Amino acid sequence: MPYRYARSVGMSACLAALLLQGGCSSTPATRGKVPERDMQAQEWGQSDVNRMATLSMRANLQSLYVLMDKLYRRNPQEWRKGGFDNREAAMKAVREAIENQQPWPELLDQRDIAGMSMALAPEFAGDRVAAFTWATADMLITAYGGRTTFYMIHGLDAQSVYNASRNLEIANWMLAHRKLGNGQAMLLSNELNTSERNLSFEREFGKMIARNDLMADVVSEKYRRAVIGYVQGLAGGSLLQFLPVQAVAR
């Protein structure tokens, strides 16, 4: 009876997999695969949390570049304000400034949240997409301690990373709702009406917010677990040891 029952359960599980996935042997990958990365020398100097922070920052910047592309496509007048020949040239300039941590001239030395506020101010006359993208990237890098790659000598402040998520929520709301003096949208982003439904901007912001919130939890948990592990080591050091079961010969 136990064998027949186990066999029945196994067949039922396989049948469910066949119905849901089209097979019982492996997970399908029809919508992409988990990216594979080669081992790099720098990883030997990174803890698990360091590596996670590095990947999180890399993904956040990539999300920002996606947003920049989307904003330029819906607001082509912006890259023209910056004097660029096309959208691609504008994106390249912004990306290089971010990755080399160079200031953005139109922001007049304003950085971090001050730069974000200036880029989304109604009176700002420059390339709003470039300024907003650069300032948001600078805010994220500042929240992560001023770096984009992390090693064991580096630490993160959980509250700063958490605050970065809240700043992204505010920025997302501003993009969707702020208008110029004439009533026109400051920047066209999300679109939700009877003829069009485009929430791709919302989704990209959501990805960045989720990454930062998870990273803040991981950093907070790291230090909490370190304290717990230390106390457990003190309390269990003498208790959690095997006892001899053989008499010592004399």
Provide structural commentary:
- The structure is a single chain.
- With 250 residues, the chain is mainly alpha-helical.
- Helices cover 59% and strands 2% of the residues.
- It has 8 helices and 2 strands, in the order αααααααββα.
- It has a two-stranded antiparallel ribbon.
- β1 and β2 (197-198) form a beta hairpin.
- α2 packs antiparallel against α4 and α2 runs antiparallel to α8.
- The radius of gyration is 26 Å and the shape is elongated.
- 24% of the residues are buried.
- The model has no long low-confidence stretch (mean pLDDT 80).
Concise overview:
The protein has 250 residues and is mainly alpha-helical. It has 8 helices and 2 strands. Helix content is 59%, strand content 2%.
Rounded to the nearest angstrom, the distance between the terminal CA atoms is 56 Å
Largest beta sheet: strand ordering: 1-2
Count, helices: 8
Please indicate the percent range of residues in DSSP E strands (runs of 2 or more).
Answer: under 5%
How many β strands by DSSP? Answer: 2
Question: Overall mean pLDDT score?
Answer: 80
Uncertain parts: none
